[in-house]
Specification:
Elements: H1 3-13, E1 17-22, H2 24-35, E2 41-45, E3 57-58, E4 70-74, H3 80-90, E5 94-97, H4 107-120, E6 124-126, E7 133-135, E8 140-142, E9 155-160, H5 163-170, E10 180-183, H6 192-199, E11 205-212, H7 218-230, E12 235-239, H8 253-257, H9 260-271, E13 274-276, H10 279-292, E14 300-304, H11 307-320, H12 329-338, E15 349-350, H13 359-369, E16 376-380, H14 392-409, E17 413-417, H15 425-433, E18 437-440, H16 442-465, E19 482-484, H17 486-495, E20 503-506, H18 511-518, E21 522-526, H19 534-537, E22 540-544, H20 547-565, E23 573-577, E24 584-593, E25 597-604, H21 609-612, E26 615-619, H22 624-632, H23 637-640, H24 651-667, E27 672-683, E28 686-689, E29 692-696
Parallel strand pairs: 1-2, 1-4, 2-3, 4-5, 5-6, 9-10, 9-11, 11-12, 12-13, 14-15, 14-16, 16-17, 17-18
Antiparallel strand pairs: 7-8, 7-10, 19-29, 20-23, 21-22, 21-23, 24-25, 24-27, 25-26, 27-28, 27-29
Helix pairs in contact: 3-4, 6-7, 10-16, 11-16, 12-13, 13-14, 18-20
């Protein structure tokens, strides 16, 4: 955005005057705005006089008292471009285009949307095909339906590509009150990243909830999240869509493994966006983060006075990726002196009903249990409805003890009901006042805490490094390039300090003598840039132990290559010494994606890499710790660690090689399209790249 567009976006989000243009939808939106606490001017625009009731009504754009800061536009779609052009020429700031029937309808609508974009100039345009926006700080509401929000001084902002979802969120009963609700619609001019960038420095915004179908500008989005992160403002995203990034003609394994959703997940993990899978989890995670803060890890301490809750907590936490560290022996001994004999000391801890409501005694239990070593604490309590029975004071006493103990432990804390409806608004408000998050449902609470830890870890990382992540975005600008054969690719790897097997490139007639010089056993391969997937074409022979076997294999792969090409194959045979002490095989691939930049995928390697799909995707640049975390997430890590008494890999050497591959990709970012090293053979004392496929622009 240029400066004029930024200024106009500010006018749109915080207007001094609003013009509502159109028929019934515009009239209803104007009346809702007037009934709120907006202190600015509200004008109606419709050729029919008096259409807006008691509000001032004007017949044309030219008749408006001055150029409006914000416009709600609800006119027939064919009328949208000329009306927008009039508003532009009058000097309007921004427009919420409620009118639909644009690019979402196909080519004809896309042409109309292009006309709309051309007419917009430097105005800020939300939509088209968008519900609108709500500013609960100033009361500037440009929204054509009833909404359930209320005025706030500070709160999370919702930015959504779904108008209906925004409406659902507005009626929530989960104690989340929003500062802004913004619809992105078709994003013809303004996208999610524009609103996020603008509001990331707004002191009235303490968090963001995003509904995303697609992002238009990944680097700008990452930068905006980084700005929010620097202020301690969390971003939670409900990202939908599972389409694959790889083209049908994907050359490398990386192309099929690093799908679009994997790339989004890698982006979110790296920049600290807490990803969730449902609207309710969006709210719960926002609640956890904006009230209690983000845990810096996945170690949870949980308390209940129900054995059933303990079992449910264990199951739900495991599914969410949380862990319950076992209390130390000293902690267990201390707890046994504080708990009734019927209590079983553990984590989660069932402190049993005899302590129910015993505030001082229970605080001592919580204090003892919350010894150092936990990242968050959770108390399960299902509150009876107000007026039902006389036992609410017992619940409140337990909550007060929990609040004081977690404050002393200085970790994020939450109270959740096992049934979502069993925590009333009075209790919610009381917990929030003490910076304890009221969460609704054990499953949702554990999932929300796990999601919130993504932000907590990113925040800790930011404070350590004092810099936010920006993806390397230097795409060559064209998808065609040349495929390097294995010999040429391995020569490049060696330049960057990546080991390859001892080998010789020679004609088939010299394969036997080359094998004798190298030493048996050997591998024989046909080298051809036209046949990148050698195994599929039968042009690889392994574990050859005699000169006769090597000679025979060389002629076999040469003939197989000719069959695959339906033409004579170049007489280029690669003879390599076999790596015989392999502990595990990895695949390391790079894809230079136009949206995400340099994407690295690490997977269990070999011929079945795509079938097994034991893979982790991350964005470059990456740190050594990122590579370690990626390895640790793979099933193949069990082999690397020494499975069933087998030798363990030299993990430091593996990390050295991954780091070298990352630096290689970074140095070639403006030329490299994609690359696979498969397999990367891991031994007890190093790594060897047994094959390399590189697709690069000349």
């Amino acid at each position: 955005m240029n400066q004029e567009q930024r200024d106009n976006l500010h006018r749109l989000l915080a207007p001094r005057h609003i013009a509502f243009v159109g028929g019934d939808s515009a009239v209803f939106a104007a009346q809702q705005c007037a009934a709120g606490h907006f202190n600015g001017e509200i004008w109606g625009l419709n050729p029919k006089s008096g259409r807006f009731g008691n509000l001032p009504c004007f017949a044309s754009v030219a008749d408006l008292p001055e150029a409006p800061d914000a416009v709600f536009l609800a006119v027939p779609r064919q009328s949208v471009p000329p009306v927008v052009a009039e508003l532009r020429d009058r000097g309007a700031g921004g427009i919420v285009c409620y009118s639909a029937g644009f690019a979402e309808l196909g080519p004809e609508g896309a042409n109309l949307e292009k006309a709309l974009i051309d007419a917009c100039g430097n105005m800020a345009l939300a939509g088209p095909n968008v519900f609108g926006l709500l500013n609960y700080i100033t009361g500037a509401h440009l929204w054509p339906f009833s909404h359930g929000g209320k005025p706030v001084a500070r709160g999370p902002a919702i930015i959504s590509q779904s108008g209906m979802l925004s409406s659902y969120l507005l009626t929530n009963r989960r104690s989340v009150n929003f500062s802004y609700v913004i619809g992105a619609g078709n994003q013809s001019v303004l996208g999610v990243e524009d609103y996020l960038e603008h509001l990331a420095t707004d002191p009235a915004v303490n968090g963001f909830g995003l509904y995303i179908e697609t992002l238009r500008d990944i680097p700008r989005f990452a930068a905006a999240v980084g700005t929010a992160l620097s202020r301690g403002v969390p971003v939670v995203a409900l990202k939908v869509g599972r389409s694959e990034l790889a083209a049908k003609t994907a050359l490398t394994h990386t192309g099929s493994l690093a799908g679009e959703d994997r790339c989004y997940q890698a982006l979110f993990d790296r920049i600290g966006v807490a990803r969730v899978a449902s609207p309710s989890l969006l709210l719960e995670t926002l609640n956890m983060l904006t009230v209690a803060g983000g845990p810096r890890g996945n170690r949870l301490a949980a308390f209940t006075c129900s054995g059933g809750d303990v079992a449910m907590l264990a199951d739900c936490a495991d599914q969410a990726g949380l862990v319950f560290p076992v209390p130390s022996s000293e902690t267990r001994d201390r707890l046994r002196t504080l708990l009734p004999e019927i209590a079983t000391v553990g984590n989660p801890l069932d402190y049993t009903t005899p302590l129910w409501g015993q505030e001082q005694a229970l605080e001592a239990v919580f204090d003892a249990a919350l010894a150092p070593g936990y990242d968050a604490a959770l108390l399960v309590q299902d509150y009876p409805p107000v007026g039902l029975g006389s036992d609410r004071p017992y619940y409140q006493a337990d909550a007060r003890a929990f609040i004081r103990a977690t404050q002393k432990a200085a970790i994020p804390a939450a109270v959740c009901a096992s049934l979502p409806e069993n925590i009333d608004s009075e209790t919610q408000a009381s917990l929030i006042a003490h910076r304890v998050a009221p969460l609704q449902g054990i499953s949702e609470a554990t999932a929300a805490i796990a999601a919130a830890s993504t932000f907590g870890r990113a925040q800790a990382r930011y404070h350590e490094q004092r810099k936010a992540f920006t993806p390397i975005h230097k795409h060559p600008g064209q998808d065609h390039g040349e495929v390097w054969d294995e010999w040429r690719g391995k020569s490049l790897l060696k330049e960057f300090g990546i080991a390859v097997p001892d080998g010789v490139l020679c004609p088939a007639a010299e394969a036997a003598s080359a094998a004798k010089r190298i030493g048996f056993p050997v591998a024989i391969k046909l080298v051809s840039e036209k046949l990148p997937h050698k195994t599929e074409h039968g042009i690889v022979r392994l574990n050859l132990s005699t000169p006769e076997d090597a000679a025979s294999a060389a002629h076999e792969v040469l003939n197989k290559g000719a069959e695959a090409l339906n033409a004579p194959a170049a007489d280029q045979i690669l003879v390599e010494r076999m790596v015989t002490d392999t502990i595990a095989e990895l695949m390391v691939g790079i894809k230079n994606d136009p949206g995400f930049g340099l994407v690295m995928t690490i997977a269990g390697g070999g011929t079945m890499v795509e079938l097994l799909a034991d893979a982790k995707t991350l964005l470059l640049p990456a740190e050594r710790t990122d590579y370690f975390d990626a390895l640790r997430s793979l099933k193949v890590m069990r082999l690397l660690g020494g499975f069933r008494g087998a030798a363990a890999a030299d993990l430091e050497s593996v990390l050295d090689v991954l780091t070298a591959i990352g630096r290689m990709a970074e140095s070639l970012a403006e030329r490299l399209l994609e690359m696979d090293i498969n397999p990367l053979l891991v031994t007890s004392n190093g790594c060897v790249a047994a094959d390399a496929l590189i697709h690069i622009r000349p």
